[in-house]
């Protein structure tokens, strides 16, 4: 399977270099980071690596909150169960809308705590000045954004390992929509080598994530996937389109990749967001030009069960 993710990045960075620099405070990668990227398997992977280091890293929470979040999850935070641990942990990566409209996060934090996990709600946008619709509307070029968000995820992994209440061998990541595109990449060996200075995730879950863009001929599922991954897909979703995802996942699985998936019949996009009730068509820049957004309480509950069953088995 040939990866077409990185050539698109070259085009996007060229077209948006000036506004991107203003918005993201671009920086020069360090000599150590450049040396790491020089070890990439090809020039395209090298550019992807350098893109991840082209902006400043995030400031992470210095302490954890014990117990449930209050009114939603409005900001980046680490939530832990009561007690000293050590606990397994889950890094949660939001959609293209960021945290301000991600009302599925409280449910996933609740589910994680109930299963004895620390939940790290990772916010890649607020500190960089992005609002709830900036990235959804192309304000941060898609492939440049997933490169930086991949680095953010591994930085979050390293940050969690500093806490004594974390089981350092049992840290997973889960992404939603745009964050799920990142989740697919976190399983790829060349992305691990670029950003995982503190080690790799033990497992990854992608929830309604696009794995191939027909419009741009871009794939987020690569043939070097090496970290156990579960994809949760909706049969009526034109974003995380199972007609594009399942053949690609099937192919890499046949090649030995530790991937699996579950398809929910009659379900569209963002099925775990209570605010998407009633459901409606939403514009989408891929054929057919829209996708179905609709909350489904039963499928949300099933998603929680499937995800934590997978993580429990993958991180034994």
Named CATH architecture: 3-Layer(aba) Sandwich
Mean pLDDT: 88
CATH topology type: Rossmann fold
CATH class: Alpha Beta
Our Rg estimate from Cα atoms comes to 18 Å
Order of neighbouring strands in the sheet with most strands? 1-2-4-3-5-6-9-10
In percent, how helical is the residue content?
Answer: 25-40%
Give the topology string: H per helix, E per strand: HHHEEEHEHEHHEEEEHEEEH
What amount of the residues lies in strands?
15-25%
The low-pLDDT segments are 1-22
Number of helices: 9
Structure description:
This protein is α/β, with parallel strands linked by helices. The chain has helices spanning 5-24, 31-37, 43-52, 105-114, 142-160, 178-186, 189-195, 242-254, 297-314, and strands spanning 65-66, 77-80, 87-93, 118-122, 166-176, 203-207, 212-213, 218-219, 229-234, 259-264, 280-283, 290-293. It has one domain: 3-Layer(aba) Sandwich (Rossmann fold), CATH 3.40.50.1820. Mean pLDDT is 88; it is low at 1-22. Helix 3 (43-52) crosses helix 5, helix 3 packs across helix 7 (189-195) and helix 5 crosses helix 6. The two termini are 30 Å apart. The protein has 9 helices and 12 strands.
Name a few traits of the molecule.
single chain; globular; Rossmann fold; 8-stranded mixed sheet; two-stranded antiparallel ribbon; 316 residues; alpha/beta
TL;DR of this structure?
The protein is α/β, with parallel strands linked by helices and 316 residues long. The chain has nine helices and twelve strands.
Layout of strands and helices, then pairs:
Elements: H1 5-24, H2 31-37, H3 43-52, E1 65-66, E2 77-80, E3 87-93, H4 105-114, E4 118-122, H5 142-160, E5 166-176, H6 178-186, H7 189-195, E6 203-207, E7 212-213, E8 218-219, E9 229-234, H8 242-254, E10 259-264, E11 280-283, E12 290-293, H9 297-314
Parallel strand pairs: 1-2, 3-4, 3-5, 5-6, 6-9, 9-10
Antiparallel strand pairs: 2-4, 7-8, 11-12
Helix pairs in contact: 1-3, 2-3, 3-5, 3-7, 5-6, 5-7
